[in-house]
């Protein structure tokens, strides 16, 4: 690098370092504004999928727990069964997206219905 | 199918959601770090290109928003050249608007004191005054003057290569031209600066 390039780069770096507080603050606000755009977009995506997925999962989990408790009978204390189910629900498994398993859930509901009936 | 398997399958949307949330949180943190690391240099570069503080701030903010909106999902090592590409386009837009404005103003002969650059804005920021620092500021002020007289492409090449430290390939992406073109514009910019600033180049 030539001397002029080196000197000009150093002078530029110096001018960046000595930026006044007001400008630094405005730039930080601009950054926050840009990142809030990202959050808004994320919220839009989640608001479309999460409530539907979680509500459906919760409804089915509730149905399974209620019916399951009836079916298991007195040999399994209800509170222990609930804890065991909670572990299973909170345990991480890499499975397909909820929306892609519609057929499975329909089938599972049918199975539960058969057991009860 | 037994009850455990059914419940395990039911856990999938919750897991997927939390993983997605974690990913977007990581992406947001990475973008925050990137923007925090680049914003001041980008502002100074925009300021030198536009010679206007308020417009430079607007250009940087706009570039940040557009990067986040359109390129957040691109690999992080592409963000810098993409950001400068957006910033360069924004600067070009502002320069065009300014040109149109000045033509209209000349037509209506309304160029008055309001249009003159604010001396406070163009003043060098005060922060101590060692001799070397003063020399650096004087040099930078002279460089800004010379850069203003260069072609837009030469100025861009110099600002991005020398001040921002982009390599030739990144500069080519940012400028939207070939690497050979970057080398030519940069070489000519340095040549012009050397000619104009002979006394500094020793």
How are the SSEs placed, and which strands pair?
The complex is a heterodimer of chains A (117) and B (202).
Chain A: H1 3-17, H2 21-72, H3 78-90, H4 102-116
Chain B: H1 3-10, H2 12-50, H3 53-71, H4 76-108, H5 119-122, H6 131-149, H7 152-163, H8 168-175, H9 179-196
Low-confidence stretches of chain A: 86-100
According to DSSP, the number of beta strands of chain B is 0
- Ranges of chain B where pLDDT stays below 50 over 5 or more residues in a row are none
Helix content of chain A: over 70%
Instruction: Give me the secondary-structure category of chain B.
Output: mainly alpha
Continuous helix count of chain B? 9
Q: How would you state the average pLDDT of chain A, rounded?
A: 67
What value does the Rg of chain B take, in angstroms?
Answer: 23 Å
Instruction: Give the chain pair forming the largest contact, with residue counts.
Output: A-B, 60 and 58 residues
Task: Give the termini distance of chain B in whole angstroms.
Answer: 83 Å
Order of helices and strands of chain A: HHHH
Average of pLDDT of chain B: 83
Strand content of chain B: under 5%
What structural class results from the helix and strand content of chain A? mainly alpha
> What overall geometry of chain B do the principal axes of the alpha carbons give?
elongated
Q: Calculate Rg of chain A over CA atoms.
A: 29 Å
Helix content of chain B: over 70%
The tally of helices of chain A reads 4
Oligomer: heterodimer
Helix-strand topology string of chain B? HHHHHHHHH
Quantity of strands of chain A, as a count: 0
């Amino acid at each position: 690098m030539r001397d002029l390039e080196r000197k000009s780069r150093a002078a530029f770096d110096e001018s960046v370092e000595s930026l006044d507080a007001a400008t630094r603050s405005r730039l930080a606000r601009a950054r926050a504004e840009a990142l809030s755009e990202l959050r808004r977009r994320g919220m839009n995506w989640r608001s479309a999928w999460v409530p539907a997925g979680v509500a459906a999962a919760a409804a089915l989990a509730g149905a399974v727990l209620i019916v399951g408790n009836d079916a298991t009978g007195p040999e399994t204390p209800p509170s222990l069964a609930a804890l065991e189910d909670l572990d299973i629900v909170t345990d991480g498994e890499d499975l397909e997206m909820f929306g892609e398993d519609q057929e499975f859930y329909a089938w599972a509901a049918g199975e539960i219905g058969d057991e009860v009936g | 199918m037994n009850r455990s398997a059914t419940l395990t399958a039911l856990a999938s949307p919750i897991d997927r959601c939390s993983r997605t949330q974690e990913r977007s949180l990581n992406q947001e943190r990475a973008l925050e770090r990137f923007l925090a690391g680049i914003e001041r240099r980008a502002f100074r570069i925009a300021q030198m290109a536009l010679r206007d503080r308020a417009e430079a701030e607007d250009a940087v903010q706009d570039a940040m928003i557009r990067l986040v909106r359109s390129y957040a999902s691109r690999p992080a090592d592409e963000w810098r050249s993409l950001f400068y590409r957006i910033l360069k386009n924004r600067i070009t837009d502002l320069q065009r608007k300014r040109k149109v404005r000045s033509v209209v103003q000349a037509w209506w002969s309304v160029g008055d004191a309001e249009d003159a650059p604010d001396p406070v804005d163009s003043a060098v920021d005060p922060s101590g005054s060692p001799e070397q620092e003063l020399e650096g500021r004087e040099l930078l002020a002279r460089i800004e003057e010379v850069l203003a007289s260069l072609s837009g492409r030469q100025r861009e090449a110099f600002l991005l290569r020398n001040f921002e430290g982009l390599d030739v390939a990144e500069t080519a992406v940012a400028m939207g031209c070939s690497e050979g073109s970057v080398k030519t514009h940069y070489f000519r910019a340095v040549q012009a600066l050397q000619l104009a600033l002979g006394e500094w180049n020793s």
